[in-house]
Amino acid sequence: AILASNAWNISGLTETVTLATGFELKNGYILYAKIDNPGQTPANWDIWETEEMFMPEAHFFVDGVKGSDTHGTGTQYYPYKTLTAALAALGTGSTHTVIHLMSSLTEDLNITQAYQNKLIYGSPAVSDSQQRQILGNHIIANAAATRLRFKDVILTGAAAVDDYVLTINGTAGRHYFENASFMPGAASSGKAIKFMGANARWHEFYNCYVGGIVECLSTTTTMSAKFTRQLAGEFKLLMTNPCSVQIYEAQRFNQMVHSAGKLQINGLYESWNATDTDAIVSTATAGATSLLEVLNAKLIDTAGNWKAINKTGDCDYILDNVIDKSGIHTLTGTRLN
Fold first, then answer.
1. Buried-exposed string 84-101: b where 16+ CB fall within 10 A, e elsewhere
2. pTM of the entire structure?
3. What whole-number distance in Å separates Cα of residue 238 and Cα of residue 115?
């Protein structure tokens, strides 16, 4: 940016920009004047690039090493130390805000406020060892209007805690996870994600790595979890209550246990666990809230053993293009296709 009188010539723009205090969008850039009279130094100006699909109106910064919850203001030079403090400072307003993680964090998130339109961004890493990690066991609960997004982060359970890495409990909020990993702690028996309580909305996981059990204990039929492009991992599904789960393109998985609700699968490529005789076990009974749908699945384990579907429940089902251990399935109920 070059200052000419009271106007700034911005490289790449076809026009000059004159601003007082405030911000203005020009050709995809947000230009923000920090003070009334910009003076002669570019340090008095910021130029922020916008992200596709999520248009930020503000940016916050968290640094678990250099930050301070006492003296931090959320700027890049004065970041907060914890994500908990950053969210509390932002409050429950609907401003689209990117919270940048400048380092890995060690804290248990217990989110009970209706935080809206907040993107927790781990930033792209050059190598896995540089990826941003939030070490702890995390709960999102009770907040009806919560809208949270997690991108490029690793959620890792505390090593000595026997609990799920993430629990979504009793919320009507909607949450989105992209390029996130869920890594169970050593003492947790492989517990990754749990849905429970009066959980009445949808949650989406895109291009994520789930390294353990996903358990659905939600008490409402309107809860929906969607997993798209599940990366290779030890994904094991336990559906106990009548919610809805959709799985699209799971590269590798453990056994799917369908006791209630609607389980819809389109794209299973390989079973991780060679000790499970059945790839899918379904005991869900017939009713409007129950369905098993399996499309485009290759039911084979890493040792080359073919797997079967063991469906003893009488709920309706749909099968199409399933490559499996033919002839040994147990298929009870009405086939819809």
1. bbbbeebeeeeebbbbbb
2. 0.79
3. 29
